[in-house]
Amino acid sequence: MKKILILYTGGTIGMVKNPTTESLEPVDFQDLQKKLPELALLQMDIDVESFSPALDSSDVGPKEWKRLAHSIARRYDEFHGFLILHGTDTMSYTASALSMMLKNLRKPVIITGSQLPLGDLRSDARENLLTGLTFAALYDENSPVIQEVAIYFEYKLFRGNRSTKFSAEDFDAYQSPNYPILAESGVRLKVFYENLLRHENTQAFTIDDYLCNPEELHFIRLLPGIDLGHLSYLPNIKILFLQVFGSGTLPQRQDIIKPIQEFVSKGGKIIILSQCMQGGVEFGKYENSRIFPLLKAISGRDMTPESAWIKAMHLWKHPALSSHDFQAYFEKSLAGE
Ligand code: ASP
After folding, report:
1. Are residues 68 and 159 both part of a single domain?
2. Which of 184, 207, 230 is the last residue of a domain?
3. For residue 118, which phi and psi values (nearest 5 degrees)?
4. CB of 115 sitting under 6 A from ligand 1
5. Does residue 68 share a domain with residue 184?
6. Is 73 helix (H, G, I), strand (E, B) or coil?
7. Which of 140, 173, 217, 263 has its CA at a distance of 20 to 30 angstroms from the CA of residue 243?
8. Domain count, the chain
């Protein structure tokens, strides 16, 4: 019998409507369990650790990511797999953070939630939770099929750090625009083995929970007509994400280029991401992206903004890296992102 640890953080899956304010509020796991008697019928040995109070995922951040990583590390040998119940709003950030903190992970860490609370008649919570558990317990003989941090949502299993929430109202709320799905659930579970992450090294599982304080990181989405003059008033910023157009184009106006050049000349680093969900940046494809190599810009390629932001937090000022190493490490894959 497989042993699975459920880590309950909160989110819509476990919310109920406050009769006075009419707003959804998270409730404790015990209340959730009562609404899902099927849990007791599963051929699994399930243990639960809950956040108390349960959180809306907009309140989940570095402190909670570390807490989850440490819970998994502490109980890694004891369980066959892990299922995190989480709000959908920031699930991709948590998945990205855990994928980078859990080094040489060789067990399933599945994250799921739902668009409607478990108690609602038409809720998607039951299927997400029960199939999420099934993926957390899926083994081929003695080896776990999933050996990475994945998000299970509406019949699809995604690589966590490639996923993004794209709908606030559809059950089909998640996408992985630049990486194929890992598995899907229908009458049978279909696993796409060629898409799964496998560590080629033989190093043991460990955690590295380093995340910088993001006060030196800044994110700007370039909008037509935007003025970047304010950059000179942000002397503490060392890493600037620029989410530019299409495959990486930038207006050639001096009021855009000059502040960026000044920022770089003072030692700042720029990371270029695309505003398109699908595809990525390609320096030099257009005349309007030839400036980036001259600015020693770092390419975020086809990474999601969620994953790129977390990766920068994980690598910037990492005690084992010099600031010269930042670019090289940022541009290489840490966990299939
Ligand atoms: N606001 C909720 C959360 O992220 C939304 C959800 O779970 O779907 O916690």
Report:
1. yes
2. 207
3. -55, -35
4. yes
5. yes
6. helix
7. 173
8. 2
Task: Give the Cα separation of 117 and 191 in Å (integer).
Answer: 28
Burial of 258 from C-beta contacts in 10 A (0-12 / 13-18 / 19+)? middle
Query: pTM of the entire structure?
Result: 0.96
- Expressed in angstroms and rounded, the spacing between residue 11 Cα and the centre of ligand 1 is 4
What span, in angstroms and rounded, lies between the C-alpha atoms of 51 and 287?
51
Instruction: Examine the domain organization and report whether 49 and 101 are in the same domain.
Output: yes
* 337: in domain: no
- CATH code, domain with 166: 3.40.50.1170
Cα–chain center distance at 47: 24
Are 33 and 13 in contact by the 8 Å Cβ rule? The answer is no
Rounded to whole angstroms, how far apart are CA atoms 14 and 117?
6
| Amino acid sitting at position 254 | Q
Q: What are phi and psi of 121, to 5 degrees?
A: -55, -45
**Residue 322: inside a domain, yes or no?**
yes
Give, for ligand 1, the residue of 9, 18, 23, 56 to mutate: max count of ligand atoms closer than 8 Å to Cβ: 56
Residue 180 shares a structural domain with residue 303: no
Confirm or reject: Cβ of 12 under 6 Å from ligand 1: yes
Residues 312 and 239 sit within 8 Å (Cβ to Cβ): yes
DSSP H or E stretch at residue 221? strand 217-221
The rounded Cα 319 to chain-centroid distance in angstroms is 23
Instruction: Name the residue with tokens 């558990």.
Output: 133
Q: What is the pLDDT of residues 210-239, one digit of tens each?
A: 999 999 999 999 999 999 999 988 889 999
Domain limit, last residue, from 207, 241, 275: 207
Question: Using CA atoms in the order 25, 30, 34, 40, what is the torsion angle rounded to 10 degrees?
Answer: 140
Summarize pLDDT for 58-107 with one digit per residue, the tens: 999 999 999 999 999 999 999 999 999 999 999 999 999 999 999 999 99
